């Protein structure tokens, strides 16, 4: 269970995240949406340990993790992916995923086997021996998920893993995430593609100018006037929901 | 293992050389090729595997050389103790430099390491009471294995070969072990590695300190072999660049690369020096020009290093043969 209480993160005079509180229950899929610059990625950086919050607390299963180093947060069972994917470009897909697996599985051969299983889950088998930098963006996003998954998290933070995918890849990604959810993994998903978010998330938190302006089930959110205001002129994005 | 075949051939030939020839010049060349390869291999632990490109590794080399020389001359101790003391000092210095690596990236780290080596140069050349200043220190010749004094070059070949194989094995460990893979992650993308649960800072500092300690051992042995320590040589930027270049030309982050680079560069340098030195006084420095041109050609056309390039050719030939 992840709990944020009145978390604020400032950069000089700019308050990127302001007084945000939220909870994610174990095994839940929580969506975070908001216009560009709403503070979604900053919030992820605070949760995953890349930034320390200025005020407020971040608790994972009751333990305060605010200000812990990211590798420490990962060891506690919370792993994040990056919006701008960061593959280990010169290494093979298998090595990429194996480096994630080595965090839990210390023997190299066992980690390689674990990585192969994760690669199968993410349907990357055909590319296991390819260099990560040779993959197109859709597969890189999937690699990003696979690598994070290999660290055996209980809660996975996904930063726009569905943007930039073609329709087929998008369907595959949603399927992969649904299967992970069915296996009991908790997900917090940042996404711009509302259609996908409406189908995937059980609960949605809306950020605007760093503040939480709404929270609720997807169908409530899409009707909330404050949300429609924040996305003024973007109502069409809800059309497919 | 298939990957170790080039190393077996190279080190095997080196081991057989003293059986074939006792020519002092050839054995001296072989010792230098192995020794410069070994130092570059030590540099490669930080520069190639951890991605911390240092241009001041002569600092650690000099620490090793001075430790061995000073303990032998001033305190009449065994050079083996000197190697140990040098390694400890270099580990300490490596921890400081490794800590810097967490603050400074890329070229800034390189500049900081140059500055560090130059500070040690000033210390060694001015602190006359201890180091004899810029006069340097002659290392006394005391025959015997315990004092590392050999009339013949043959024991030196095997001693330096042992060191070279040891450093090669360290590099192979970094290619096949958990810390090695994690270090590769740190080198490729530090944020991603950190997010995947890898303690990046600790790994980087450890790698730089280990690299420093190995470099220092090479420096200590070199001082014993050459018999004289000159601060302006052991702490020079030239030497630091030589360590880096052997690896870059041979292949960054490959176990055999530094030795291939050293084989090429050291033998070329020895050859050019021998050929042009008694040619004409005005041409005494021409080997540097040829050396420089070769570097440009390699860096321009084979930026991945010779080992990587040969590997690609072999794989391409394999595909062609199967087709």
What are its keywords?
heterodimer; A: 241 residues; alpha/beta; Rossmann fold; six-stranded mixed sheet; four-stranded antiparallel sheet; 35% helix; B: 323 residues; mainly alpha; two-stranded antiparallel sheet; 15 helices; 76% helix; globular
What does this structure look like?
The complex is a heterodimer of chains A (about 240) and B (about 325). Chain A is an alpha/beta fold and about 240 residues long. Chain A has one domain: Rossmann fold, CATH 3.40.50. Chain A contains nine helices and ten strands. In chain A, the strands form two sheets. In chain A, strands 6-7-8-3-9-10 form a six-stranded mixed beta sheet, with helices on both faces. In chain A, strands 2-1-4-5 form a four-stranded antiparallel beta sheet, covered by helices on one side. In chain A, helix 3 runs parallel beside helix 5 (about 135-150) and helix 4 crosses helix 5 (about 135-150). The model of chain A has no long low-confidence stretch (mean pLDDT about 90). Chain B has about 325 residues and is mainly α. Chain B has one domain (about 1-235). Chain B is about 75% helix and about 0% strand. Chain B has 15 helices and two strands. A two-stranded antiparallel ribbon of chain B has the order 1-2. In chain B, helix 12 (about 235-250) packs across helix 13 (about 255-275). Chain B starts with a helix and ends with a helix. The mean pLDDT of chain B is about 85. The interface of A and B includes residues 71, 99, 104 and 111 of A.
